[in-house]
């Protein structure tokens, strides 16, 4: 299943508020994310406000589109927008630009195992 990683910038003056808002996310927002295909979703926040998001999903565009149809997402995004800086669009979820994955340990270990097994059996991968 594809992984998605992205960054956003939280206003450094509002970090404590931002953290507090995420200690108990609304149950209906949690349900909407899960039902829309956002899995293993985590946010990491650096002290200068750099926010790194990570999730796993079958189809990120479809997962984003599903959230756009959710009333709870519209309410959540409206409440969270003031915490972000440098948004080209009004809602943080619309400003997400996935980062290109350049290394994955598990993928390379798996490829190495396949190469080794092929060499041992005389097969070519």
Shape: elongated
The biggest beta sheet, please? 3 strands, antiparallel
Sequence stretches where pLDDT stays below 50 over 5 or more residues:
none
Instruction: Give me the side-by-side strand order of the main sheet.
Output: 1-3-2
- Mean pLDDT equals 93
> What structural class results from the helix and strand content?
alpha+beta
CATH C-level class is: Alpha Beta
CATH topology: Alpha-Beta Plaits
In whole angstroms, how far apart are the ends? Answer: 22 Å
Counting DSSP H or I runs of 4 or more residues, the number of helices is: 6
In total, how many beta strands? 3
GO molecular function, one term: racemase and epimerase activity, acting on carbohydrates and derivatives
Protein name: L-rhamnose mutarotase
Pfam families: rhaM
Q: What would the keywords be for this entry?
A:
125 residues; alpha+beta; Alpha-Beta Plaits; three-stranded antiparallel beta sheet; 6 helices; 3 strands; Dimeric_a/b-barrel; racemase and epimerase activity, acting on carbohydrates and derivatives; L-rhamnose mutarotase
Question: What's the structural blueprint in terms of helices and strands?
Answer:
Elements: E1 3-9, H1 15-21, H2 27-35, E2 39-45, E3 50-56, H3 60-68, H4 71-80, H5 92-95, H6 105-121
Antiparallel strand pairs: 1-3, 2-3
Task: Describe the protein.
This protein is of the alpha+beta class and 125 residues long. The chain has one domain (3-121): 2-Layer Sandwich (Alpha-Beta Plaits). Helix content is 45%, strand content 17%. The chain has helices at residues 15-21, 27-35, 60-68, 71-80, 92-95, 105-121; strands at 3-9, 39-45, 50-56. Strands 1-3-2 form a 3-stranded antiparallel beta sheet, with no helix packed on it. A hairpin with a 4-residue loop joins strand 2 (39-45) and strand 3. The longest helix is centred in the C-terminal third of the chain and has 17 residues, at 105-121. It starts with a strand and ends with a helix. 10% of the residues are buried.
């Amino acid at each position: 299943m594809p992984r998605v990683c992205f960054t956003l910038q939280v206003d450094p003056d509002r970090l404590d508020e931002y953290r507090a808002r995420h200690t108990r996310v609304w149950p209906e927002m949690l349900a909407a994310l899960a039902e829309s295909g956002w899995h293993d979703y985590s946010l990491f926040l650096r002290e200068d406000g750099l926010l790194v998001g990570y999730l796993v999903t079958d189809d990120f565009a479809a997962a984003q589109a599903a959230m756009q149809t959710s009333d709870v997402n519209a309410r959540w995004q409206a409440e969270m927008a003031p915490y972000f800086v440098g948004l080209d669009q009004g809602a943080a979820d619309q400003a997400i630009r996935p980062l290109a994955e350049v290394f994955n340990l598990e993928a390379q270990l798996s490829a190495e195992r396949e190469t080794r097994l092929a060499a041992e059996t005389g097969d070519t991968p």
